[in-house]
Specification:
mainly alpha; ABC transporter involved in vitamin B12 uptake, BtuC
């Protein structure tokens, strides 16, 4: 059970980078960006092909991030320069990325078994090789956990700093009120492009780490990633969200971990893996409908409270 929970936490942390990327577009820019489904596979494809070709895994991961940034740039230009609606812009980029990812890999999937990855580098440093970790059977898991925690922590720190700068505030203002932002002299088109680039760079980063963790990359691995990202964002906001921007980023990460723990639990209880997408869709629908449920529950709760006060 410990290994199952640890695996869910690790997967949640790796997917948390995708969730943060979805949060930037969906919550900050108010754009439902479907580029995510292509950019996560792009990050995995670039990293896998580069590592297979003998490149250092850290350089391969950076190259994957650059690929994701360019994917976000393409979507941003389609939307801002060609006036294509953002949803359709994301779909067009996602479709184009499928062919690009296939060309990058040269085939449908690429194995990374017995190849040097970021996790093997951390494992060589001695992480997970102590007697206690070996007895618990976590020798292979701890290096991955260390990398995941480090990457998420650095990402949160950098984003907290960036969104506290003038450019960061301009980006947030663009999502909150584009008309007011333009009246203040902010180039909202540039901010939208920048937000999409940051978002898809993080998604590709996540894809590169996931590919190295599962030891293969596949052109289909991005299917459903936008739903997973949205589910994690909504769960995080409902269960953990606070007012400050830093706490919201942490809540998003906790939402991704919680989602993976829920998935691990339902699988452990015997749910067929083929039903996971249906379960995810139902989870997202319930989370989105929570404000409606809350609005109906508040009058009932207040009525009960008044009756209790009267009787007392």
């Amino acid at each position: 059970m410990l290994q199952i929970a640890m695996g869910a936490v690790i997967l949640g942390l790796l997917w948390a980078l995708t969730t943060i990327g979805v949060y930037i577009t969906y919550k900050i820019l108010n754009i439902a960006d479907l580029t995510v489904e292509g950019s996560i596979a792009m990050g995995a494809a670039i990293a896998a092909r580069a590592i297979y070709s003998g490149m250092d895994p850290f350089k391969a991961t950076i190259l994957a991030i650059i690929g994701g940034v360019l994917a976000g740039l393409a979507t941003g230009l389609l939307h801002t320069k060609l006036r294509i609606p953002p949803l359709l812009s994301g779909i067009l980029t996602m479709i184009g990325l499928y062919s690009i990812n296939l060309r990058v890999l040269g085939k449908a999937n690429q194995s990374l078994l017995r190849l040097k990855t970021i996790y093997t580098v951390f494992g060589d440093l001695g992480i997970g090789k102590d007697r206690f970790s070996t007895q618990l059977g976590l020798g292979q898991t701890l290096p991955i956990l260390a990398v995941a925690v480090l990457c998420v922590a650095i990402t949160i720190f950098v984003l907290r700093w960036f969104f506290g700068t003038e450019i960061g505030y301009s980006l947030r203002s663009t999502g909150d009120n584009p008309r007011m932002s333009r009246s203040q002299g902010i180039n909202t088109n540039s901010m939208i492009i920048l937000g999409l680039m940051i978002s898809n760079g993080l998604v590709a980063f996540s894809g590169a780490l996931i590919a190295q963790q599962q030891a293969y990359a596949d052109v289909q691995m991005g299917t459903g990633s936008i739903v997973i990202g949205l589910a994690s964002v909504i769960i995080g906001e409902v269960l953990y969200a606070r007012r400050s921007f830093l706490s919201r980023l942490v809540a998003v990460v906790l939402g991704a971990i919680t989602y993976r723990l829920i998935i691990a639990l339902v699988l452990e209880l015997g749910m067929p893996a083929s039903d996971l997408k249906l379960f995810t869709a139902i989870t997202v629908a319930i989370a989105l409908a929570l404000p409606v449920f809350k609005s109906h529950w508040e009058p009932i709760k207040n009525s009960i409270r008044r009756r209790v006060d009267v009787t007392s």
